[in-house]
Design goal:
There is one protein chain. Helix content is about 20%, strand content about 35%. The chain has helices spanning about 20-25, 35-45, 65-70, 85-95, 95-100, 155-160, 170-180, 200-210, and strands spanning about 5-10, 30, 35, 55-60, 75-80, 100-105, 110-115, 130-135, 140-145, 145-155, 185, 190-195, 215, 220, 225-230, 235, 240-245, 250, 255-260, 260-265, 265-270. Helix 4 (about 85-95) crosses helix 7. It starts with a strand and ends with a strand.
């Protein structure tokens, strides 16, 4: 952990593109490889030395009671009761807690597999940094030759002017820093996936399973798995191919689940 820097996990969004899954759980609590996305990020931050409510904060709004109960005393909690304030507004609401520190900011829907992001290495405490992965010239969200990969590092000077009102970091911080020559992109050598759509969410799960099968303790399998992720307490009597079965889910003996996410007995979300 670097002195004078705290960490914030942005977990307030509604996850509209991932509906209907996010009508049941907030996106940060959706499991990838049988681990909630939020827990993956908190573990990653822990590997960097950030743990506990003095150094890590989590903001929440959509289905906030689930996030609050899940986080408990592992982090400082900022609940946005009137609806999500966006990436910049969420930080603005946390200004008093940040209190002059730089901020390592992670998006709760980011799936990273590989080393912890090296955004702090050699940081001068003044420039804005983004974690990036290579992208194509056609991508409208490019930063140089990269696209954003879930983490940024902001100096206090960039956070101090943010307000607790709906706003986003791209418009208020990242692009202005880029125009001023005060933005650095740090390439991420591992795998980054945005889990915002069913197809991308499925891709992250299959990557977490190393393109094989990943079965949680307590699941019961009498059928056939072909690149599947099966949660705790789930029952699979049929065939599951390139799919995810959430904890407690059920696949009947005559069913063949393909490129989909199964929740409970009846909800199937196509991910092709």
């Amino acid at each position: 952990m670097s002195p004078g820097v705290c960490a914030v996990v942005l977990a307030a969004g509604e996850g509209r593109r991932l509906r209907p899954l996010t009508e049941l759980r907030p996106k940060p609590l959706c499991p990838v490889g049988n681990v909630p996305l939020l827990d993956r990020l908190l573990s990653l931050l822990g590997a960097l030395g950030y743990a506990g409510p003095a150094s890590v904060a989590v903001n929440t709004s959509w289905l906030a009671e689930q996030v609050v109960a899940h986080v408990g005393d592992r982090a400082h909690l900022s609940v946005e009761p009137g609806g999500p304030l966006g990436t910049a507004g969420g930080l603005g609401r946390l200004r008093d807690w940040i209190d002059g520190r730089g901020v390592l900011v992670g998006n709760a829907d980011a799936y990273l597999a590989g080393p912890p992001p090296a955004l702090l290495d050699g940081w001068d405490g003044e420039v804005v940094r983004l974690l990036g992965v290579p992208t194509s010239p056609e991508d409208p969200e490019r930063f140089g030759a990269h696209r954003f990969a879930g983490f940024s590092l902001l100096p206090w000077s960039a956070v101090a002017r943010l307000r607790p009102e709906p706003s986003d970091l791209t418009r208020l911080v990242w692009r202005p820093a880029e125009r001023a020559g005060r933005l650095e992109v740090v390439a991420y050598p591992g795998t980054y996936l945005d889990t915002g759509t069913p197809a991308r969410y499925l891709a992250a799960n299959l990557h977490a399973a190393d393109d094989g099968d990943l079965v949680a303790d307590g699941a019961r399998i009498t059928g056939r798995l072909e690149r599947a992720v099966v949660g705790a307490g789930a029952v699979v009597h049929g065939t599951v191919t390139r799919s995810v079965v959430w904890p407690g889910g059920y696949v009947g003996p005559d069913e063949h689940l393909v490129d989909a996410i199964r929740v409970g007995r009846e909800l199937t979300v196509p991910a092709a």
